[in-house]
Specification:
Radius of gyration: 17 Å
Strand content: 25-35%
Distance between the termini: 45 Å
Number of helices: 7
Number of strands: 9
Order of helices and strands: HHEHEHHEEHEHEEEE
Helix content: 25-40%
Length: 224
């Protein structure tokens, strides 16, 4: 599969080829998704928001974390929302799953709508990280948890997607973004993944996880 064609699809998968690319990425992302959901401590009756759900392959994993879990997923790709609705039709019909075409900076939810929020491998595409985190702060409940998971840039090992709409972050750069926002890091974890062959090279992948809580302010207007 052509490296450039794949890379251009990852930020905003479209059409038949976009569907194929994401199907291929699901296997690569199984490890980081599983660890994200585990570290987020999803349990009974949680109201979960996933930002960038892709084709929704892992929604069932979240629902399996407990009873009466309410799941909302957003994605900027109409193709991915369409595919996710097909794949999760039986869950949508229960009323516990809601899939919406939306951007992190324009989420159509009331304040403090969710007590668990996660986003996996999307930070590379945020146009304005400060604004994105401000919007997450707004919809996260006061004692909720927010997980950012991504693969940090490591010279000589990363997949070198920076030419294709990615901003590749080192861990210290992401921590700097977090510290400038109204979140505190309550847990951070770095895990080694299995090596992969991609674009003619072997990559020793590392996934990074930041579990965050709000730093309390008197009211949301103070963030503006």
């Amino acid at each position: 599969m052509d490296f450039e064609k794949v890379a251009k699809q990852l930020a905003h998968p479209t059409g038949t080829f976009g569907v194929e690319v994401v199907l291929g990425m699901n296997h690569l992302n199984e490890f980081i998704n599983k660890n994200t959901y585990d570290l987020l401590q999803i349990s009974d009756s949680d109201k979960v928001l996933e930002i960038g759900l892709g084709n929704g392959k892992f929604i069932q994993n979240i629902l399996n974390c407990g009873n009466n879990i309410s799941y909302t997923g957003i994605d900027i790709s109409h193709t991915m929302i369409t595919e996710a609705k097909k794949l999760n039709d039986k869950f949508i019909r229960t009323g516990f799953v809601n899939l919406i075409l939306a951007d992190i900076e324009k989420m159509p939810f009331l304040e403090e709508s969710f007590n668990k929020i996660c986003t996996i491998n999307t930070i590379y595409f945020w146009k304005n990280p400060a604004k994105a985190l401000e919007r997450v702060y707004r919809v996260l409940s006061k004692d909720g948890l927010f997980m950012i998971s991504f693969r940090p840039y490591i010279e000589g090992q990363s997949l070198n997607f920076s030419e294709y709409g990615f901003t590749e972050y080192k861990t210290e750069e992401v921590e700097s973004i977090i510290h400038k926002a109204n979140f505190k890091i309550v847990e951070k974890k770095s895990l080694n993944e299995a090596p992969i062959e991609f674009n003619g090279q072997t990559h020793n992948m590392i996934s990074q996880y930041y579990l965050l809580q709000k730093i309390k302010v008197n009211n949301y207007n103070e963030l503006k």
